[in-house]
Amino acid sequence: MRVGMKSQVSFDDLVACPGCDWLHYRQRLSTGEYARCARCGDIMETRKPHTVDRALAASVAGVVFLMLSLFLPFLSLSRAGVASQISVLDAIEALWLSHFRWLGVVTLGLIVLLPMLRLVLLVWVLLRVRLALPVATHMRTAFRWAIDLEPWAMADIFMIGVAVSLVKISSVAQLEVGLAFWSLLGLIGASVLINLVLCKDTVWKLLTGLD
Questions:
Q1: 69 vs 33, 84, 180, CA distance in Å?
Q2: 0.85 exceeded by pTM
Q3: Residues 26-45 pLDDT 10s
Q4: Is 160 in contact with 166 (CB distance < 8 Å)?
């Protein structure tokens, strides 16, 4: 139901459509239900089952995959009997030592620091919620940051670039992908799983005491 102009209600009782910003009264949803906007049909609220446990497990897995991808060999190249290995951190260091320092900083931020920050924030917030620890204001800020950082965690974009590069390099050298390559794929899978199982509305209600 849309909120009338003269309605005297609390802001906590209202929810805005993410698609068209139309205000609606907040609904009490059962597990598995969702609410759509009366005007544009966009999903406004959800109630996914076991969202805290599933999102926490996926976030922990993402942290593990990201740590493995940093230190394990990412790619092995061999040509004319000469072989070499490189990790993600080695690639960033090579960019920093060359004339592409800005590219190294961007790669470090978007591939390592921001994804790690987002996952750590999610693990910290969800673990405290799972253990029913007291909710503090900074937990709400941390969860908001974790949500806002989602578009900036670009491991999937990095892997697309790597795939294109592998196709080009394979014509001049023998390539072998390392464990870090598969770890990054695991990180991408964990990120997709987080987006599928994380019910932001449920977690936010638990953090704000609206549930």
A1: 37, 17, 4
A2: no
A3: 777 666 666 778 778 777 67
A4: no
